[in-house]
Amino acid sequence: MLGPVLLAASRSDAIRRLVSAAPGTKQVVARFIAGETLDQVIPIVKDAAAEGLEVTLDVVGEDITTVEQSYAARDAYLALVDRLKELGLGTRAEMSVKLSMFGQALEGGHELALANVRPVVEAAAAIGTTVTLDAEDHTTLDSMFAIHEELRRDFPQTGCVIQAYLFRTEDDARRLAAAGSRVRIVKGAYKEPASVAYQDKAEIDKAFVRIVKILMAGEGYPMIGSHDPRLIAISQELARQAGRKLDEYEFQMLYGIRSEEHVRLAAEGHRMRVYTAYGTDWYGYFMRRLAEKPANLLFFARSILTKG
């Protein structure tokens, strides 16, 4: 039951300071975070492209408290678009954004987040790529979906994320599985109450499969976000049953996790996209990665003990 504890810790400033100062933290963070700067992450994008992989880039740092920080987040993504354009990497890399980073939780946050994300989506479209809106905790989703719908009026390729552990998601999937849509399905990585989300792993897995089936049977473009070999195999079979070609859906996995599987799927002809996070404010993202898999926490603990 460490997962819920770690997810709660992801919101704690005291634990943030403790983890940040711990010996060995930097080594483990580097497993999941591609770098702190844009200059550090661009070679990773180039290497991925050379291996037949695509990427989605996430500038970490959703825990903002001021309007000025939301503007800085917008500008960081605009700088990323400029660099991708300069290097001709627009067709290999898209971007993932958390609307909390664009000010969604601040006063007037819905309008602020929309105003901040729109120029990023527009700039991405201009270089031949797009943006996917990440899902966060359940209280933010109505706002995220409304912003997604608004953006798609001008930029129909804008994607969004849905989370299998939420009871609402099957209905969301049916609504979103329309022509031209791009939908990433993941299990979910936030601490959610039993009133809105499945708590049992087996139930979450079953929901994941039901939702993949809905997406594959729809007219949109499904993006399967999972490292689970069984769920990947089931998704492949559901795609086959739906008559989908290999370029009519894709798999997505996190940077630093099952890297050999990234290459294997790409070699088989699948579209394979690596979710690549970078930046200095890595704590919340890092703690969610630890919560998702006990082996990640064990790796972290061993690194601290080794360095201690």
UniProtKB/TrEMBL annotation:
Coiled coil: none annotated. Residues 46-299 form the Proline dehydrogenase domain. SUPFAM superfamilies: FAD-linked oxidoreductase. Keywords: FAD, Flavoprotein, Nucleotide-binding, Oxidoreductase, Proline metabolism. Pathway: Amino-acid degradation; L-proline degradation into L-glutamate; L-glutamate from L-proline: step 1/2. Its EC number is 1.5.5.2. Signal peptide: none annotated. It comes from the Bacteria. Its cofactor is FAD. PANTHER family: PROLINE DEHYDROGENASE 1, MITOCHONDRIAL, PROLINE OXIDASE. This is proline dehydrogenase. It comes from Streptomyces blastmyceticus.
